[in-house]
Amino acid sequence: MIKTQKEKYSGVFIMNSEQTIEHAIIEQNTEGELFRHEHFQLTGASHQVLVYPTWAGITDFERRVASRLNSAGFDAVIVDLFGNTQDLSTIEARKSAMHRLTRDFNHMVEHLCQLNTFICTQAGNEDKQASAMGFCLGGMCAVLTGLTRAGYMAAISFHGLLSFPKDRRPTDTTTRFMLLNGNIDPMVPEEDICATLNYFEDNQLDLTFMNFSRTLHSFSIPGAYNPDAGVMYNPDVAEQSWRYALDLLKHV
């Protein structure tokens, strides 16, 4: 089911003005949950980008990302990863939700496949190029989508987790990957980086990996500030990484 609604939110990701954005809600019932994906449709766009949120679920941050994608010429759909019954109001609740999603990667891949297939049929992207991007947990979801789904032009991860299994063969070796990482992000240890780089090289995949110096986790999210936990917004890196991502999307 698709519903159109207007959402008022405070603009984030560099800009701070309030905007009113009209977008469609794509409702999906699966696994006993109601998922509400948000479609920021751009008439005439030939390329659709799936946006995977952080462990906090869909927020104004992701809506601003989708709006910026529209401004750059892309159709965008924000994926609801968790459904309507999952509490995401506290750090502990988010840890629980993320554990539920990532404890079985085979089930996680199947879950993402169900969401993506439904969105594809409802959002009308059969005749469009498709790519995926995500942030934090969503960054890993974008990478998994690029590795396990055929036909994706690009998969882009902003400060994404890299702890996914490295024993699965990629489905489509033509997908281009971009991993944008903070060099001192404690949630992405050196061993995960090394294993990931080796995996992409062993499978002869197209990978651009960027490590931003003096940069922590959540560097693209305005308001992120918990240096003791390794989390801090970096506006310069946020804008620089966004330009790199757009450049890839425009040239695939």
Automatic annotation (TrEMBL):
GO terms for molecular function: hydrolase activity. InterPro entries: AB_hydrolase_fold, Dienelactn_hydro, Dienelactone_hydrolase-like. The keyword Hydrolase applies. Keywords: Hydrolase. Residues 48-251 form the Dienelactone hydrolase domain. Pfam families: DLH (PF01738). It comes from the Bacteria. The lineage of its organism: Bacteria, Pseudomonadati, Pseudomonadota, Gammaproteobacteria, Oceanospirillales. This is Dienelactone hydrolase.
